[in-house]
Design goal:
alpha/beta; Globin-like; Elongation Factor Tu (Ef-tu), domain 3; Rossmann fold; 13 helices; 12 strands
């Protein structure tokens, strides 16, 4: 545990909350602009997150503001620290990278706040930054040690070969990834993701997170990827360019969103679109290892043309006996009929969940687009579900959700 923050630092950081609330996005944008002047630092980031209307800029501004507001009681932020540490494992962020961020952040505060950025304030934020950085570095070192001591574990990047491609729907394809060295792979926690690194468009390096959609095993991983027409091309590369036999680099499984091995309470899995991928990993695991666990899986899709892996999931549910599956189509196709191709027209709602699931007793796991998560996570909170029973994952900066 890092040395405790001084009382003077705590007071100075709390006093900076109004300035951060007003200028936070400008500070974080300036910080990233400075960071990305260093090519080796720029290469560490997933630059698709720098788009979306500045979503990463806003997410970091939200996180810094939350840190300042909770500077004298950081316990509420520990889940955020864990999430950041897991992301750093995926992107291979190392201790030697932290000084670059410190310099960029403090220089950005000075640039944006001008005369209000007094030496005392900058010293306080310097101490505050390194306190948080040391927390992260300690946790990341622990995660790396666990990986190194696990069968099939590794740190950094490891080469994998695409051994199979499976078309799951009109928009989703699965890829089976096996290690080039032929050695075992570490068994992931069901719900975790992989970070892939590959080159597109004449050597442009990209990094992308994809949930593992298979149950843990020691031989391979499966990812199931939606082809996105927009964006910087990671999914298009996998769908349109990558072929069986191609090699990609993988960081080890990471993420704080997963089903615990000692799960006792009923489980409600909620997904939309390609958010089904970690749920399939969980369902496969539950079917193989947890015969007595009660599970309700509710998935939302546009229609049958985009809905992936439905037959597979329902087959597992029948084998298990205590997994109930319900599907919602928001834009049913001409041949889609509620009660046949899917269960319900429309959208998943908290009222429906309250009426059809063990709402008061279950743990909720959610994965899907930002609007889906914003609606249901906030809806569950407003319905009185304790935060400790709500677990969510999506890829990209979770600024609004983390702020809530």
């Amino acid at each position: 545990m890092p040395k405790a923050l001084s009382a003077h630092t705590i007071s100075a950081i709390r006093a900076s909350v109004p300035a951060l609330a007003e200028h936070g996005p400008a500070i974080t944008k300036t910080m990233y602009d400075r960071l990305f002047l260093e090519d080796h630092i720029r290469a560490l980031f997933n630059h698709s997150n720098q788009g979306e209307g500045g979503s990463q800029v806003n997410a970091l501004a939200t996180a810094i503001l939350a840190y300042a507001r909770n500077i004298d009681n950081l316990e509420p932020l520990l889940p955020v620290v864990e999430r950041i540490a897991q992301k750093h494992i995926g992107y291979n962020i190392l201790p030697e990278h932290y000084p670059f961020v410190a310099t960029a952040l403090l220089d950005a505060i000075a640039d944006v706040l001008g005369p209000a950025a007094t030496p005392e304030l900058l010293d306080a934020w310097g101490e505050g930054y390194w306190f948080l950085a040391d927390l992260l570095k300690e946790r990341e070192a622990s995660i790396r040690l666990d990986l190194e001591n696990s069968l099939g574990g590794w740190t950094g990047w490891r080469q994998f070969r695409i051994s199979e491609r499976i078309r799951e729907s009109e928009v989703i394809t699965s890829f089976i990834l096996r290690p080039v060295d032929g050695n075992p792979v570490v068994r992931h926690q069901p719900g975790q993701y992989l970070t892939l690194r590959f080159d597109i468009d004449g050597g442009i390096e990209v990094k992308r997170n994809y949930s593992i959609s298979s149950a843990p095993n020691s031989e391979s991983y499966r990812i199931s990827v939606k082809r996105e027409a927009a964006g910087s091309g990671g999914s298009r590369y996998l769908h349109d360019v990558a072929t069986i036999g191609d090699i990609v680099d993988l960081a080890p499984p990471a993420g704080d969103f997963f089903l615990e091995k000692d799960q006792v309470r009923p489980v409600i899995l909620l997904s939309a679109g390609v958010g089904l991928t970690p749920m399939v990993s969980m369902i496969e695991t539950i079917n193989a290892e947890r015969p007595a666990l009660e599970v309700h899986y509710i998935h939302a899709a546009l229609n049958s043309s985009t809905h992936a892996m439905d037959r597979h999931v329902r087959s597992l549910a029948r084998l298990h006996g205590s997994i109930a599956v319900s599907t919602f189509y928001s834009e049913p196709g001409e041949l889609d009929v509620a009660g046949q191709s899917h269960d319900y027209d429309g959208f998943i709602s908290v009222d429906w969940l309250r009426s059809h699931t063990p709402f008061a007793d279950a743990d909720f796991f959610l994965c899907g687009p930002k609007a889906f998560l914003r609606s249901l996570v906030n809806g569950l909170w407003e319905a009185g579900v304790e935060p400790c029973r709500i677990h969510f994952e999506f890829f990209g900066p979770s600024d609004e959700l983390l702020a809530a």
